[in-house]
């Protein structure tokens, strides 16, 4: 779809493959002796195997291979930054040839599976008689629920929002992931017996909320999969002015509107970019979601400020290219110094030019200010997309024995998902910090396997019955 066409709506921008095109693209896989694409995938998907099957026209078998290692391949196929994961590791790409479009094939197979009824309902072979509570209905929680319910556990998922999906529903815009794609996964879990208690804030004080102690008392094991939602905020002068908004507030409002909700802050314009000069501060995928949402809402102009250069931007290079095609202007090596205007409204952002100075052990470059490099950009709306930090989980859950890392994420034992509370596990961003959806899926699946082993060890009669 052309950039001019796609900015007029929030539909996904990539068209589906025709069967002939899908098999042709899959046939480009070189079937390497060492599949770097697989090692570049957090889920370690059997990519060469299902590409070969797809190339031979054996689409359902290819799908089975795909779903064997991933609970939501058609979602990861849409939103993974393949350019720096599987596709970036592809031997063809490394050799100077165009990479196999692995993500597009994965999405094509997944959509075909739903259309043709290959996605079967969850029907456990045996009911274990034990239950697991999952706090958080985002990708880690949904992935764990799928695996645990398939293993025969009663599963209840708690989430503070009124819809399941977490950032898949409320954080990621529809032009990257249409919401029916997430909902059909949720519907499959519900059909399989997973119970969702939505609008329930664990540790909250509202009507219908539950304490963490009550959740633990209800279940044999608990998984914390809350994600990280506390936004990092600007500290520059003027950052408290009306018109400076947090990225997640902005994206949630936009996604709710797309889902048919009436959002007062969108209606009154405070969380809408329509007709405004928008400046987004940040360089990750959330920043890209914000700039591309703003242009679709009819912003007069959209500028992205990032303090490093293009090569050191943490967001997907593909997302940056899409944004540029859609008319977004990037100010590389620019850092905000102040928000201009007054308490009643924003008029601009004063920034300063930066220069790369030294490369750290992690490969990222530090930056320093360029003397005399100040400049102003007009703005009516400033969106802070500076990343996310964990909430105070032990305080919120009234669980002082729940240990944290120095980064305030939940501490787990070694390479396991076990926390310092007996029978309580944790997975996803609340453990690793703000990261990719595919890593959350991997963590959720791994946590489910660990919880299964832990519960099975405490129910030898059930273990024997399953073996029989």
TrEMBL record:
What InterPro entries has UniProt attached to this entry? DPD_II, FAD/NAD-bd_sf, FAD/NAD-binding_dom, Helical_ferredxn
Top-rank taxon of the source lineage equals Bacteria
Occurrences of domain Dihydroprymidine dehydrogenase (ranges): 7-117
- Pinpoint the FAD/NAD(P)-binding domain residues: 132-444
Name of this protein = NAD(P)-dependent oxidoreductase
Which organism is this protein's natural source? Brevundimonas vitisensis
The taxonomic lineage of its organism, from the top, reads: Bacteria, Pseudomonadati, Pseudomonadota, Alphaproteobacteria, Caulobacterales
């Amino acid at each position: 779809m052309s950039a001019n066409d796609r900015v007029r709506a929030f539909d996904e921008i990539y068209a589906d493959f025709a069967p002939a095109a899908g098999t042709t693209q899959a046939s480009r896989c070189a079937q390497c002796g060492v599949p770097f694409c697989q090692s570049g995938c957090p889920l370690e998907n059997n990519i060469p195997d299902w590409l070969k099957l797809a190339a031979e026209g054996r689409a359902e078998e290819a799908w089975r291979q795909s779903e064997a290692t991933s609970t939501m391949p058609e979602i990861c196929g849409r939103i993974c930054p393949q350019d720096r994961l599987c596709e970036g590791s592809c031997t063809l790409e490394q050799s100077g040839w165009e990479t196999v479009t692995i993500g597009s094939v994965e999405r094509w197979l997944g959509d075909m599976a739903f259309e043709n009824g290959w996605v079967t309902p969850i029907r456990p072979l045996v009911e274990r008689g034990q239950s697991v509570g999952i706090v958080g209905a985002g990708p880690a929680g949904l992935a764990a629920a799928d695996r645990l319910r398939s293993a025969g556990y009663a599963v209840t998922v708690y989430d503070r929002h009124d819809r399941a999906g977490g950032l898949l529903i409320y954080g990621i815009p529809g032009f990257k992931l249409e919401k029916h794609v997430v909902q059909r996964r949720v519907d499959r879990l519900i059909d399989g017996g997973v119970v969702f208690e939505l609008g329930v804030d664990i540790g909250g004080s509202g009507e219908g909320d539950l304490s963490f102690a009550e959740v633990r008392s209800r279940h044999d094991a608990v998984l914390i999969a809350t994600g990280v939602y506390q936004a990092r905020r600007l500290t520059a002068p003027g950052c408290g002015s009306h018109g400076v908004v947090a990225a997640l507030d902005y994206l949630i409002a936009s996604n709710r509107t797309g889902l048919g909700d009436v959002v007062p802050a969108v209606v009154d314009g405070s969380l809408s970019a329509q007709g405004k000069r928008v400046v987004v501060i940040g360089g990750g995928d959330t920043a890209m979601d914000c700039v591309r949402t703003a242009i679709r809402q009819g912003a007069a102009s959209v500028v992205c400020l990032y303090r490093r250069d293009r090569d050191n931007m943490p967001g997907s290079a593909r997302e940056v290219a899409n944004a540029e095609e859609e008319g977004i202007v990037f100010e590389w090596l620019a850092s905000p110094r102040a928000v201009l205007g007054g308490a009643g409204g924003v008029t601009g952002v004063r920034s300063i030019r930066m220069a790369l100075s030294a490369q750290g052990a992690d490969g990222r470059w530090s930056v320093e200010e360029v003397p005399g490099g100040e400049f102003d950009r007009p703005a009516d709306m400033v969106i802070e997309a500076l990343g996310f930090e964990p909430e105070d989980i032990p305080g919120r859950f009234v669980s002082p024995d729940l240990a944290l890392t120095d980064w305030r994420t939940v501490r787990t034992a070694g390479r396991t998902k076990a926390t310092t509370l007996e029978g309580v596990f944790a997975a996803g961003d609340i453990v690793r910090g703000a990261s990719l959806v595919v890593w959350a899926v991997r963590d959720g699946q791994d946590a489910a396997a660990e919880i299964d082993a832990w519960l099975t060890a405490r129910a030898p009669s059930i273990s024997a019955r399953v073996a029989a």
